[in-house]
Amino acid sequence: MITVWGGQTSRSIRVVWVLEEMGLPYRVRQVDMLSGVPDTEWLAVNPGNFLPAIQDGDVTMVESIAIMEYLMGRYGPTPLQPAPHDPAFPAYQQFLHMGEAGLATLLMVPLVSGFIAPEAERENWGARWALGCAERRLDLVRRRLAQSPYLAGEGFTAADISVTYALQLGSNHAGVTLSDAEQAYLARTTGRDAYRRAFERSHEGVGAS
Ligand SMILES: N[C@@H](CCC(=O)N[C@@H](CS)C(=O)NCC(=O)O)C(=O)O
User: Fold this and answer.
1) Mean confidence (pLDDT) of the chain
2) CATH fold of 89-192, please?
3) Does the pTM of the predicted model rise above 0.85?
């Protein structure tokens, strides 16, 4: 049984969403990063203390995109991951990675500046720079969505899982304003049954004493 170490608003939703799309059995172990109480069981899994992580038998992994690629490679094939000879593959590969490396990573800077930084440091050049960089990368997402319903082309793939999380992070917590096309895209991706199940499983037990 695969264990997903996650949090209710963390990138673990990407991993759980892949598991739901593929119909694989798993359990979610919630980690409360904000409790202030060290979770020693969790820190033994990832001493770096960032979510998500998985354990699958002898395998322990962090990095949400790498975990998604592991699951699709290990338990696929799956339509979530076009094969290298598929014409959809280059765009798939680009947006799969852009969702984290080019978008979510940058968006963490305005997010932590806006919500966690001391009052006097909330407005800062670095956060504005990071938001501007993410906005320019979003132009590539916008241009792609003007051409096709999903980022790799006609079919939904893991690239959409990756970028959906980044769009949610940006619009909910980092000051990104979504266009109508992006909002329609999010409605398409998060309207999937697998997303609804993933969302529910990611919130199970949260707030329970
Ligand atoms: N590139 C990593 C980013 C992981 C990350 O930043 N996770 C957040 C939660 S979504 C976190 O744990 N932040 C706390 C920290 O890094 O100290 C991934 O995609 O998994």
Assistant:
1) 96
2) Glutathione S-transferase Yfyf (Class Pi); Chain A, domain 2 (1.20.1050)
3) yes
